[in-house]
Amino acid sequence: MSCSCQTEEKAAIQRVSTETQISALEELINRYKGVEGSLISVLQGIQEMYGYLPRPVLEYIAKRLDIKKARIYGVATFYAQFRLTPVGKHLILLCQGTACHVNGADKIEAALCDELGVEMGGTTENRLFTLTEAACLGCCSLAPVMMIDGQAYGPLTPDQARKVIRGILKQEEQSREEVGA
Amino acid sequence: MIVRIGLSSCGIAAGGLLVKEALAFAFEEEGLGWELQQTGCIGMCHYEPLVDVIHQDGSINTYGNVTVDTAREIVVAEMSGAALEKYRIATDREPNDCLAGQVRIALRNCGIIDPESIRDYTDRGGYQALQKALTRMTPQQVIEEIKISGLKGRGGAGFPTWFKWNATRQEPGDIKYLICNADEGDPGAFMDRSLLEGDPHAVLEGMIIAGYAIEATSGIVYGRAEYPLAIKRLGKAIGQARAQGMLGNKIMGSKFSFDISIKQGAGAFVCGEETALIASLEGERGMPRLKPPFPSQRGYWDKPTNINNVETLANVPWIIANGGESFAAMGTADSKGTKVFALAGRIKRGGLVEVPMGMPLREIIYGPGGGIKDDKRFKAVQLGGPSGGCIPEALLDTPVDYQSIKNTGAIMGSGGMVVMDETTCMVDLARYFLNFTQDESCGKCVPCRIGTKRMLEIMERLCAGEGQPGDIELLEMLGQQIMEGSLCGLGNSAPNPVLTTIRYFREEYETHIHDKKCPAKQCKALITYHIEADKCKGCTLCAKKCPVNCISGEAKKPHVIDQNLCTKCGTCLEVCPSKWSAVSVS
Ligand SMILES: Cc1cc2nc3c(=O)[nH]c(=O)nc-3n(C[C@H](O)[C@H](O)[C@H](O)COP(=O)(O)O)c2cc1C
Ligand code: FES
């Protein structure tokens, strides 16, 4: 049921998506089409699939769900969860909550930035890690805390934080070797 | 034998899943038919991973800070009928000090039952309050019972719960909503997460009873994006409750039909505010609007809506089951019942405690909290998060009830208590909170959007050693205007941390401004690190650990810091062996 006005957007999303992503996207659209107030859920779905909100995909859903692009952009930029640029394979959320702040989160930040060679918010060159801030991860009694791929680590020292990163790196190397072998 | 392991986010972060595996492995190796159960957080987060061994006769040994290795040792010891004393922190007859003085109502099941098992919940009396309400009470009677209990909202504002319910109930309309506010935005508070992860059915039962009282048609939980485990367990609990007829059509054979769904927030502090939360639920930017109309009049999709906090709702089944008077028997004249506090910061035993309202702050911090980390000196406690304030040592005997806390300039808030010691700079802390609220300001109203920005600029100046005479007065004036002129609770309270720290720690502000010094030695622009040549033994540890390689010196000779390169991270101070203590800050 693609009409001509949609073909341009469709071609654009094909450039940034795999086949599975496209079919999952269609599923998402069908689930929420006509459901009032579901824009945030739609965006969460897209981010889950792509790791961020690719612009062509947003333009495509604007057409398909008949929502103004400006509104989508407004919502996407309001919430801290949404990202408009791609992230690395592992997302590091470093807690900047009160408990972590008074327990030296800044030192963990310095160690992570140094270990990864990025600034806060940055992604490593090999696209393995993105370092971002979180308000509070709810593990305040283990402060300072970071969360990587949904797993929380704490209480951290700068050295332990580095170790966690090196551990993940090592796993990545091993799995690459296995694939290579 | 049953072996129970705490697997809330805190337990998992501390390595609980690995310990669980190690336990299962040990059982298998030893050929033991012991049952392995998971539970939520008992609140002694600093002891995680926690393992309970429950014997046939009902006696319990509790072990703390269990590792993969000690897990095995515990199993071996328990097999021979002994306890592994070294790691035992409590038994059923001798509870740990952290639990002393606690009265657990909202947290009644946390750390005891398997949160993913509805059986565990019903075995401990779960859903009996709902049954009682549906079969023996009218909605009006339920509201009356809550009124007798004196329960006030635990989400921040402390508004009487019965009043809100009654207002929503009395609004005309066929469709009404009940919303559970699980957005827990205060950085430093985690009781709602713990409740949802440790006892999701208690929150659901509270919601269903509230739904019955206000005659709502459906309920929604607005969950926080950062709490994936809480959302998962709650989702599972909803499925179980539906399958057993506690949710859905004609609940427990009554005429009342009600269902609950979950919607996930997307990370915005302001969405904890009721009208912003509703906007967010409707898929919009979470911008608050003026009240009235209140959500009870025009809420979700313009229908009458009641919003309650997670902890408020978790109290409800207990009140219905035990009667409002038993709840009101605890606490003080203006604050009834118990309150959960999240102890964090520079405290020895961080975690969750539930105590009767009116307990003095000192008793909480030095009782279950165990006092200050590293035996440093208490400086202040921040209550109520970014909307709250700092309470100094002189007021440590303040009882925690809504009014007494308010009199200090802080607020009860959701119960986050972040403890600070002499190493915390109050000016930097106030800057930190303001940075948070400024960042989270939705931008709709000018006093909040621009006012907090101007205040933050001044605070940053102070921390950078560029404060000017008159800055304190300027902060006070701006703060007052922002509080009066802002549209919603975020702006109304954003200046609180600054104003309370000025009130109680004015001299610290003055030292920053006039002497360009930071007494707590935290503001980087105002301190320098030195290595004292006569004390340094040249162990090279600091030079090795310095992240910017700005320390030089030969082995066994005094080292020097290159002040031009030093980022003042404090690593050298931390790693310098205490027997030499050669690094100093000034
Ligand atoms: C900026 C702001 C943030 C808030 N955040 C929360 C929150 O995270 N959780 C919560 O329950 N209430 C929060 N509240 C309070 C709610 O607006 C509301 O009063 C509460 O959810 C009502 O429930 P209760 O009466 O059971 O406390 C916040 C209020 C403001 C102004
Ligand atoms: S403040 Fe860091 S987890 Fe709460």
Account of the 3D structure:
The complex is a heterodimer of chains A (181) and B (586). Chain A contains 8 helices and 4 strands. Chain A is an alpha+beta fold and 181 residues long. Chain A has 2 domains: 4-78, no CATH class; 90-180, Glutaredoxin. In chain A, strands 2-1-3-4 form a 4-stranded mixed beta sheet, with helices on one face. In chain A, strand 3 (146-148) and strand 4 form a beta hairpin. In chain A, helix 2 (19-32) packs antiparallel against helix 3 (39-50). The radius of gyration of chain A is 19 Å and the shape is globular. Chain A starts with a helix and ends with a helix. The model of chain A has no long low-confidence stretch (mean pLDDT 91). Chain B has 586 residues and is α/β, with parallel strands linked by helices. Chain B has 5 domains: 2-95, Glutaredoxin, CATH 3.40.30.10; 118-328, NADH-ubiquinone oxidoreductase 51kDa subunit (Rossmann fold); 338-421, Ubiquitin-like (UB roll) (Roll); 426-515, de novo design (two linked rop proteins), CATH 1.20.1440; 528-585, Alpha-Beta Plaits. Chain B has a 5-stranded mixed beta sheet with strand order 2-1-3-4-5, covered by helices on one side. The longest helix of chain B is centred in the last third of the chain and has 20 residues, at 496-515. Chain B is globular and about 80 Å long. The N and C termini of chain B lie far apart (58 Å). The mean pLDDT of chain B is 96. At the A-B interface, helix 3, helix 5, helix 6, helix 7 and strand 4 of A face helix 1, strand 10, strand 14 and helix 16 of B. FE2/S2 (inorganic) cluster is lined by residues 95, 97-100, 136-140, 143, 145 of chain A.
